[in-house]
Design goal:
This is Sec20 C-terminal domain-containing protein. The structure is a single chain. The chain is an all-alpha fold. 94% of the residues lie in helices and 0% in strands. The chain contains four helices and no strands. Helix 1 runs antiparallel to helix 2, helix 1 packs parallel to helix 3 and helix 2 runs antiparallel to helix 3. The termini are far apart.
Length: 228
């Protein structure tokens, strides 16, 4: 049980130191803040949150001190609690002073801006004119780029159309070549067939002529040499 209490006390002290440092850092941010009021309000909200966490941890440490078995440990922890409370009060005082300093600085800045209102208006007007000129230049540049891109797209479309036309011409030529190839093949077959038929006709003529000659010879033989 005592070991668990020691761990809890150690955690409480670590958290108290952590929140104390965070509060001090936020108070310094408030001192350095030059506005606007919304930024100051946001910083104050963070400080309030850290003070609540710090106060809660100090109360836990105080409760742990009251639960100590030995009187010496109890008094030592209560003294630490008292020191933490004093430190928290000191931080609260610094917080109020920092808020006062920040508000005075914001008021002075607003007064200076009012006094320099004319110059600021002129500067803003000049800045707006410069911005408008810059926007106009950028717009013209973008329009020029758009025109160049449009021309490139048109050229690409024309090139694509040319490629399509060329491809179509090549396909038509290929079809014509196939048709001519078929015609040539057919002519070759016809010529081959004709050559074969011519050879056959020559052979038939030769046979017919041989038969005719044989017949003539036979007739001549019978008439000239009937006894044979």
């Amino acid at each position: 049980m005592a070991a668990a209490q020691d761990v809890h006390v150690r955690i409480c002290n670590q958290e108290i130191v952590k929140f104390d440092l965070e509060v001090k850092a936020l108070i310094q941010d408030i001192r350095d803040c030059s506005g606007p009021l919304s930024a100051l309000t946001e910083l104050n909200a963070k400080v309030k949150e850290k003070f609540q966490q710090l106060r809660h941890r100090i109360q836990e440490l105080e409760q742990s001190a009251k639960e100590q078995d030995r009187e010496s440990d109890k008094q030592a922890l209560l003294q630490e609690v008292e020191n933490h409370k004093k430190q928290m009060l000191s931080n609260q005082t610094s917080w109020r002073k920092a808020n006062l300093t920040c508000k005075i600085a914001i008021d002075n800045l607003e007064k200076a801006e009012l006094l320099q209102g004319g110059d600021l208006l002129r500067q803003r007007k000049t800045a707006k004119e410069n911005l408008a000129q810059t926007s106009s230049t950028i717009t013209e540049n973008l329009m020029g780029i758009s025109r160049v891109m449009s021309q490139q797209v048109q050229q690409s479309e024309e090139a694509m159309q040319t490629l399509v036309t060329s491809s179509r011409t090549i396909l038509d030529a290929n079809e014509e070549f196939k048709s001519m190839s078929g015609t040539i093949q057919l002519g070759r077959k016809l010529i081959t067939k004709y050559n074969r038929r011519e050879l056959t006709d020559k052979l038939l003529i030769f046979l017919a002529l041989a038969l005719f000659l044989a017949t003539v010879l036979y007739i001549v033989k019978k008439r000239l040499f009937p006894f044979l």
